[in-house]
Amino acid sequence: MQLLAALALALHLAWILWVIFGAIWTKGRPWLTTFHLLSLVWGILVEIGPWPCPLTLAEQWLDAKAGLHTWAGSFLVHTLDAVVYPNLPVGLIVDLGVAVCSANLLLYLSRLIRAMRKTP
Q1: Nearest to 55 by CA among 66, 68, 42, 67
Q2: Which domain holds residue 89?
Q3: Per-10-residue mean pLDDT for the chain, 120 residues long?
Q4: What is the pLDDT of residue 78?
């Protein structure tokens, strides 16, 4: 169970990095752009909504099944946990999350405007 808990945490970090930096890899890839846009909307909804992220729930469930507490486990798990769940005020984390998602959406908007200007 500890391995599954660590894998869930690593997947959560990968998802967060995808939401933050995904626009870098989407240019010229419509299906990937669609997936990233949906990821951004999901990120905003989870940040401002009343429900937790399903990956967070999976991590907590797997940690409980493995008998782990917040700081138990390997150094990698501890480090990933600190990156995914920084010790910052919740309001600041929500604001930063929405700002990152909004910045990505503005990037997509600028790409759309440039593409529309090139179209005859």
Answers
A1: 42
A2: 2-118
A3: 86 91 91 95 85 83 79 54 79 86 92 88
A4: 58
The answer to whether residues 5 and 66 touch, using CB atoms and an 8 Å cutoff, is yes
SS (H, E, C) 48-101: HCCCCCHHHHHHHHHHHHHCCCCCCCCHHHHHHHHHHCCCCCHHHHHHHHHHHH
Contact of 13 with 84, CB cutoff 8 Å:
yes
Q: How many domains does the chain have?
A: 1
Closest CA to 86 of 14, 22, 13, 15: 13
Quote the pLDDT of residue 77: 57
Task: Return the pLDDT at 70.
Answer: 52
